[in-house]
Design goal:
Helix content is 34%, strand content 22%. The chain contains 13 helices and 19 strands. It has helices spanning 2-17, 103-109, 112-128, 145-154, 196-209, 235-246, 259-268, 281-289, 298-307, 319-334, 354-361, 366-372, 375-381, and strands at residues 32-40, 45-47, 49-54, 57-63, 73-84, 86-91, 131-136, 162-164, 170-171, 192-193, 215-218, 220-222, 229-231, 252-256, 272-275, 293-295, 396-400, 413-418, 421-424. The strands form 5 sheets. Strands 1, 2, 3, 4, 5, 17, 18 and 19 form an 8-stranded mixed sheet that branches. A 4-stranded parallel sheet has the order 11-14-15-16. It has a 3-stranded parallel sheet with strand order 6-7-8, sandwiched between helices. Helix 5 (196-209) packs parallel to helix 6 (235-246). The protein starts with a helix and ends with a strand. The structure holds zinc ion (ZN). Residues 90, 92, 137, 343 line the site of zinc ion.
Length: 425
Amino acid sequence: MRFYLAIFLAVASVTAQRGGRGNRDSADEPPTVLKPARVFDGESMQEGWAVRVRGGRIDAAGPAASIDATGAKVIELPGTTLMPGMVEGHSHILLHPYNETPWNDQVAHESLGLRVARATNHLRNTLMAGFTTVRDLGTEGAGYADVELKQAVAQGIIPGPRVLASTRAIVATGSYAPKGFALEWHVPQGAEEADGVDSLIRTVRDQIGHGADWIKLYGDYRWGPAPGAHPTFSLEEMKLAVETAHSANVPVAVHTATPEGMRRAALAGVDTIEHGDQGTPEVFKLMVEHHVALCPTLAAGDATSQYAGWRKGEQPEPQGIQRKRATFKQALDAGVTILSGSDVGVFTHGENAREIELMVQYGMPAVAALKSATSVAGQVLHMDIGVVKQGMLADLIAVEGNPVQDISALRKVKFVMKNGVVYKQ
Ligand SMILES: [Zn+2]
């Protein structure tokens, strides 16, 4: 870690001299040529390719003999696969693992400063694990700290991935948590409450005004007298939120696990559905028809089941995991676009690759799983990332081995570049 820090400080001092921004705009700088054993370009594996980077973007990619290295700084990466920096589609950088501290106690007992201090470590560990972009889906009681952390990364103050922020997230009144306090107490919630025409429209606009890149709604939650999750927002409310966000060109993500919550979200025209644990073939078909991507968060269930006592590998899979396997398979069979996203924060930041490994274990081909964390993610998030080709942002990582043959290669990250700046080598 000390070694990474030294590199980072050197890089940071260079970026600071350029005006303190992590972005580079230097046509005067020599290009860098990266020479790995092979390149996963976001679509397929290309043996013997090299990549030239200049000014924060990919300048050329192709067979090594075709890449002009004249005047370039050459970085040899023998034995590695160079690939786009991975995307974490569903993170909570302001949460830490629930087996360390339950969610309720993090929200109710950990102060903002403490949570932000932890989050700086989370961001660094995420970047060093090869994840160069995170879509953070709610600060869970930590206000607008995701926007502030995003600024700290962008200004080169702390190392971290690109952050897409969604600020406080939006819940229907009475549906969220923490719960269980004296009923006459007004307990602050882990997300912002809003309902109906006036307050929902105002809250969506207010969060966009505070820097939200995405709007996150909770379409269902564990509430009401019956056990389990039940829908919260009506279809009309979701449509209002989507219409309001989309008019500012801000996409919408909806947490929903129930078929009815998923149905309302798809019909409302949201951009992604988070979790989708109880999805049905009918609801997945609806998602395809309405171009809604699924962020399956397999790793979250895998983690919480183990926190609840499941001894993975020794005991049979609990019912929740069996159902998740089955519905994930239904989503794949229906042709739903899958955005890799793990709900990291529930488990340790920097172990984000767990999601991609689980997608493969649950039956997704390795190349499709890699695409879901690279090129497909770039499309779903509308960013110039996830593909190794000229003009894309130079977010590149190198892993030891070949992740198409063995997905666990994603854990052996040897090199990380973001925006043309080397953070790990
Ligand atoms: Zn989440």
